[in-house]
Amino acid sequence: MRKYIDYIKYKYTENEKYFCINGWCLDKDNKIEYKVEINGKEISTDVVPFNRNDVLKKFEIQNEKCLPGFAIRVDLEEELNHFKLTGYSSEESVVILDYNRKKLSQIKDQDEFDYEIEAFDIKDKKFTVIGWAKSNCKKEVEYKIVDSKGNEVPIELFRVVCQKQVLYKMLSENQINSGFVIHFKGDVNDKYKLIIKGKEEKIIDLNSVNNIFRRIIQNSHKITPTLIKQSFSYVRKNGIKQFIKRLKFNVPDQIIYHDWFMKHQVTKEQLEIQKQKHFDYQPLISIIVATYNTKEEHFKEMVNSVLNQSYSNWELCIADGSTDNQVQDVYLKEYSNDTRILYKKLNENLGISGNMNAALEMTKGDYVGLFDHDDLLTPDALFEVVNALQNKKYGFIYTDEDKILDQTKKYDNPNFKPDINIDYLRNVNYICHFLVVNKELINKTGNFNSDFDGAQDYDFVLRLYENCDEDNIYHIPKILYHWRMHAQSTAENPESKLYAFEAGKRAIQSHLDRIGLKGTVSMGKSLGLYRIKYEVKGNPMISVIIPSYEHVKDLDRCIQSILNKITYKNYEIIVIENNSKKKETFDYYHKIEQKYKNIHIVYWKDKFNYSAINNFGVKFAKGEYFLLLNNDTEVINGDCFDEMLSYCQREDVGAVGTLLFYPDNTIQHAGVIIGKGGIAGHAFIGSQKDDLGYFGRIVCTQELSAVTAACMMVKKEVYEQVNGFNEELEVAFNDVDFCMKIRKAGYHIVYNPNAKLYHFESKSRGLENTAEKVNRFNNEIKTFEKNWPEILEKGDPYYNINLSLKDNDYIVEE
């Protein structure tokens, strides 16, 4: 067993009493349990495991489930005389740390003020400083920049979650928002200082800091991975690429989006037209709000955003569970004369669900809108909802949303959502805001459940889905809701409500239990994301269908990865030979067919036509499930087949796709976007292996319009039902067309990122480098356009019409 300690911190002051340690521990079976002893007594404490790619790489371990990193924080009731940490595996144990009183006194830290500068850069007279600072004073840490003459310089300050310290459990709850990003304009020849004021004052010479970071960048010729990883909060939210852009001083994302929203928001002239609009169906919409010690400014802005609606048939139902009378005083003083605003002061705080239910009891409307007490509606929000209801009395409607920065009032982080997507919803509550629900559906579904407080809306929307057909759910692809970001909100600071994420996990599990899906829910790769591992039912045969032409080394690598890694054993491999010429190719076929009873070679004699070849190959298959696989792929994870099969066995699923990487570990395929590049294109091409994607879209299982047949599992009965591949599409878009036919037949196409392979990108096919091939490609475009004009015109329902279809996907369309 190997071990290493990265960090130890021991504080025992009047305000802070804790011991924290992080490092890594590794043994051959990769399963470690930990025992913590304080002053000779074993204690129960949480150990946070996390990934350490550097460790796995060093010891050449390829096991994505292995989490050798650990972080432990113990809040102390008494001063330490002895601390011992032991790691246990199935075969051995190792003492990771054993400190007596003398050693503890040497690391004991009485300093109650800590800070760190994590990144610094200058470009075009614009400066950025990124770091964290924490102090035990009750006020927030203050920051200011002064020039060489001592004059204070105006700054733009963003307080962010310091995720590194959250991960290492180095923070108490009131210190979580300790990260900072500071922008200011200045003279590159001047000398600036950063003054951080907490319980005491720290002065940092930014010129010295600049020299350090400049050397790092110059020595590595690029921004180092270490430097990137140090800014966890920004990377988590925006991704590595955007972080690099920020250090190079492109315009920050929120400024770009803020300008986009200001350009695309409803105009005053449009609002006046909306106010004059008479709908045939004008439902009363009851907006429910549960207030709890809401700031006066936030409360007023929230109420005023309802008063400013261009649609007027609404009521605002406020249930106030505050411990003071501030909300009540503001209501009585400013809003009590408006009969549309209903207010009830609760005798006690009933919790978020109880307070929401109290507001729900006040409603008289046909529809109910869910509204958080410190957020904002756009002035056209209710108009757009009622406009959609003219077509159909939907069970529920949801909209796109963004976030508003409390300090700067700038719009940021837009969530342009897909249409209803149940697998994605089971991975993350993407529906969230603004949600408007038919009152009859609420009566059928039931009220908010306090067992899931913190994720009561997640539980609620899952139950709504269970009681509502998918074609009775409508998504409005417009930003109609602003989620306020401030230190106490989950929008700005997910770690501020960690209990909510555990409640979300339980909400998903309860949903699965209710509908009879056997699966286990676990936390995903970021707070708010989840993963479901479904049980495989029985032991059905999988027929792996691999078209092949020459390229014996590629084919052998593909087959050997299946034979050596795949844990699911009931499969056969059918290689479809397509006009190879080399003797070594046929020698290889003979060799593997003789050696393995479950490998068969069949021979296609006609010209290359990917669709026809697969349709030919499946005729020889014995399995209940077909796994269409390119010969230039390589399995990464051993449970790859289990992951695909567990989803493909569901009655609502027709086919399952996977996450594919290039050999350099950048992404080759994370689903297909219809319309990208004209007809269809892969999502997230070139993204890094550890990227989460836009709102978790890389790492979350979800329905998509299409996935690539480079690795696609499909039910045999579904393949036959849709008559296989369209043989008019010889090379291009045949897999997309195939998926479209499966969807038309009423099945979902699921992208499962937990099934992973390398893809060496169509080596067998060749390039479009002749007039004949170019002509064929253009004809295939026309065939697809003829077969599927509606989706090309309206847009991919699993993407969003506000997002770009150019090379860069998941960014706003200018």
TrEMBL record:
Residues 286-442, 543-719 form the Glycosyltransferase 2-like domain. Keywords: Transferase. InterPro entries: Glyco_trans_2-like, Nucleotide-diphossugar_trans. Gene3D superfamilies: Spore Coat Polysaccharide Biosynthesis Protein SpsA, Chain A. The keyword Transferase applies. The keyword Magnesium does not apply. One of its GO terms (molecular function) is glycosyltransferase activity. This is Glycosyltransferase family 2 protein. It comes from Floccifex porci.
